[in-house]
Each structure stands twice: as C-alpha cells, then as structure tokens.
Amino acid sequence: MNQMAIVFREAGGRWMPVGRVDETVGMEPRQVQFGQGVIAYTGTVLGPNDSRANPTGRGRFSLKVTDRGVTFGKAGR
Questions:
Q1: ∠ CA 66-27-8 to the nearest 5 degrees?
Q2: Best CA proximity match to 26, nearest among 54, 63, 1
Q3: For range 41-53, the mean pLDDT
Q4: Taking Cα atoms as reference points, which of 45, 41, 29 lies closest to residue 65?
Q5: Are 7 and 39 in contact (CB under 8 A)?
Q6: First-to-last C-alpha distance (Å) of the chain
C-alpha cells in the first residue's frame, strides 16, 4: 500500500507547503509526535503471517523536515 505525506508550516498567518514524500509506509498513522525537525508516527504494516488484505503489524516511522523538504525513514525508538 502506498501513501503520500504532505507537510505544511504556518508562516505569517498562512500555511505554506514544506514538501511531500510520495512513498511512505505505515497506514492508519497514530501516536504522532512532533519534534524539532521530525514528525514520528506508528503505522500499520504487514506482520509475518498477515495477508495483504488484513495487515496487523506495527512499525514506527518518521518524516525528517528541513527548509529544503521532507524525507521519509524508519524511526528509532
């Protein structure tokens, strides 16, 4: 399953796009945490015995946010 993340930042009363990542992982994002330059979340992924129609696994992922854009990665604990 593919999903896209778009990050906006408020500046001077307007929301401006910082960037987007077309290929992210971890559907149904939850436990979202906003930190300095990073957005981390837990998402649903395929577990070891899951069918593609019913994933039950969980993974922790991150979006690194800079003035130059957004990149996707696996989050550390």
A1: 30
A2: 1
A3: 91
A4: 41
A5: yes
A6: 24
- Give the whole-angstrom CA distance, residue 74 versus residue 77: 10
The contacts of residue 63 (CB under 8 Å, 6+ apart) are 5, 7, 21, 24, 38, 39, 40, 70, 71, 72, 73
What tokens appear for 42 in the block?
Answer: 């837990």
DSSP 77: -
Position 76 confidence tier, pLDDT thresholds 50, 70, 90: low
Query: What are the E-state strand segments in 1-77?
Result: 3-11, 14-24, 27-35, 38-45, 57-66, 69-74
Token pair recorded at residue 1: 């399953």
pLDDT at 73: 87
Length of the chain equals 77
